[in-house]
Amino acid sequence: MWTKPWTSKEGFLIGGSLIFVGLMLELSVGPVAWEAFAWPANWIVLAGFLFMIVVMFLLRKKVYGFQFVGTYQAAIPAMVYAVVLTIIMGLTRQQAGGTWLNDMLSFWPFVLIYVHIAVILGVIILRRLRHLHSWKQDIPFLLNHLGLFIALTTATLGNADMQRVKIICSTDEPERRAMTTDGRIIEMPIAIELKKFIMETYDDGSPKRFASEIRILAKAGKNIETTVDVNKPYEVEGWKIYQYGYDTQMGAQSQISILELVSDPWLPLVYTGIYMMLGGAVCMFVIGGRKRA
């Protein structure tokens, strides 16, 4: 162990050490407090993270550990740990404030392993950029790896800026007050007024569809009239408005509608990373098809 060149054994040991450190952090300071990374802290952390990766790449010939990070012997063990933790997350019910395995996105070992993967990706991308050979090989590789890097980092750091609130709208009465997930009442930049609640039922009387015809009072006095369904949100000024609930006792005669508003400013960056990965996959498919032809 630890004799050069390092192998996958060292890679697994590094990943295992990160999990151990994560468990110690979980026991000592509790789960990751993502709210501490809200803007502008997340942008500062992102800039520092990118700077760290560049420094590791530049010092790779002087520090063997930095050189090892960019190898498959480091990448494969990290992916194994990530897959195992992700499977655990998929098999357990996830909820904010739950136990360790029920809140994996705030579980230190899970977060550290994915940070480790992001570092590996960053070093590998810089190494490939420094030794570009053929666009047929380099473009798909960079699209896949850079897309994954962007999706991982922005989805993680952008989590702190995501807002999810609920508004209880009444008929012909604009409402600006919303309730956050922790029970606080905040003033929204838009007001929403319920014009009509819509409910369609099956023959047995159970709800088939429920929606709300609403009027949105946006900035600069702009009025928007639209219909919001359960799976058909309306987006305005960075907020997606979803149909969430209604007065179940009144049913189709409900005079209120409960709407959920979600703001996720980092989501376009996450989608950018996903589209890049899809583009890389398409490029690989096209290039592979031409070679077989």
Summarize the structure.
47% of the residues lie in helices and 23% in strands. It has 293 residues and is of the alpha+beta class.
Can you lay out the helices and strands and say which pair or pack?
Blueprint: H1 8-29, H2 41-58, H3 64-69, H4 72-91, H5 108-130, H6 135-157, E1 163-170, E2 175-180, E3 185-201, E4 207-217, E5 223-229, E6 234-236, E7 239-246, E8 256-263, H7 267-292
Antiparallel strand pairs: 1-2, 1-8, 2-3, 3-4, 4-5, 6-7, 7-8
Helix pairs in contact: 1-4, 1-5, 2-5, 4-5, 5-6, 6-7
Give a structural overview.
The structure is a single chain. It contains seven helices and eight strands. The chain is of the alpha+beta class. It has an eight-stranded antiparallel sheet with strand order 5-4-3-2-1-8-7-6, with no helix packed on it. β3 and β4 form a beta hairpin. α2 crosses α5, α4 runs antiparallel to α5 and α5 runs antiparallel to α6. The chain starts with 7 loop residues before the first helix and ends with a helix.
